[in-house]
Amino acid sequence: MSRDSIRILIAEDARAPESVLADILRQAGYEHVEVVESQDAALQALDISTSGNGRYVTGKAKQLPTVAITHLSLSAADNRDLCGVIKAAYGRCLPIIMVLGDDSVDAHVRMIDAGADAFVVEPVLPNKLLDEMSRLLGSTAATAAVGTESQINVALPTQAAAPEIGDEIDGYRIVELLSWAGRIYVYRVEDHAGRTFAMKMLNTSGDAEERILLRFEREIDIMSSIDHPNVVRFIDRGSYADNSYILMEFVMGRHLEDLLAEHPGGFDFATVHTVATGLVQALESVHEMGIIHRDIKLRNVFLTDDNEVKVGDFGIAVRIGETRFTSIGYCVGTPLYMAPEQARGQDATPETDIYSFGGTLYHLITGQPPFTAKNALEMIQRHLNDDVPPPLAHWRPAVGRSWDVLIVDRCMATEPRNRPGSMAEVAAILAHLKADRF
Description:
CATH architecture of the largest domain: Orthogonal Bundle
CATH superfamily of the largest domain: Transferase(Phosphotransferase) domain 1
Number of domains: 3
CATH topology of the largest domain: Transferase(Phosphotransferase), domain 1
Low-confidence stretches: 139-160, 325-331
Distance between the termini: 45 Å
Helix content: 25-40%
Number of helices: 14
CATH class of the largest domain: Mainly Alpha
């Protein structure tokens, strides 16, 4: 099936930056993309109506879209209901991709309960969306890589002025939109000398919640206070049309999630030890400053072209003892490596990052996450219920028991008191493990 014959329906609300999704698809060759801005408009476009008893029934739609995409900028209830209604009306005849606002347990559970066929998580990476499209359509065609001659660039119409490709902000020219998530946009920019940087911008227009503004200011405060070679470097801050931005170093490399996809059996020993050492050094430094990252995962750790480790995305990082922006009992983070106390919504400590470090390292060595589950809620329960991941040698027989002691027995212990007391302790153990190669 050629892309110019595929019809796509995108359901968002009127405030969403709809052209991001639509332009990604159109520039990739999907010519027939329709955007509707409410649940009712989506039902009308799909010729779905309600019967007198409140049950949804469908009329005879002349032509169904090939794929529908729903976005969490709709209210949570509307988004879940819309997906469920479409599935009740058309079942497998109409695949649905749901865009999740984050990796939270609640977002994953909504997606699963609604019956979506696939999902992408904000920040939406163009290649990730296109990969899901190809998978659902059964296409084996390779997706054009971001950063190549077929680069996809999209404009962002928002409530306040937003920069477009080619615009200049404080001496930095917008070259490319790297990703977007809700009100956060990340661009690749260049200065007049041709040097490349990353610019992370918050759209502060309209009804932006105070906690979003405060969290972004906290991220600026935290990043500007860190100076470590294994942490993405803060350059400057500024504003554009009242939108705050952070200017950071542009990492010439790839995040570990991308790299691991090319090594399904896990990384070689040298790479594992390099990543583990760099990650330990970064976390040891920020912990000494009283900062907890709270979201250590493959996507937030980069390996540069020079084989250096960089930790990024301090968007939900906190200083020990500072005021919460979320209610007690509300958890933030990624379910795959989330520490039990973090899942309970308790205050984060260095041991919280140590648990996620252990889960990340387990995944790097084996090519498998520590736990698998049918959904995010079940995943969290496995972290909470004293479940023990399979020994590393179950997946990779050459890995010695000493690595299990560090990762499974110590770092991923359910109780924080049973984990290493600091990243310095982890570093000391890791130094000894350099002789235990696999």
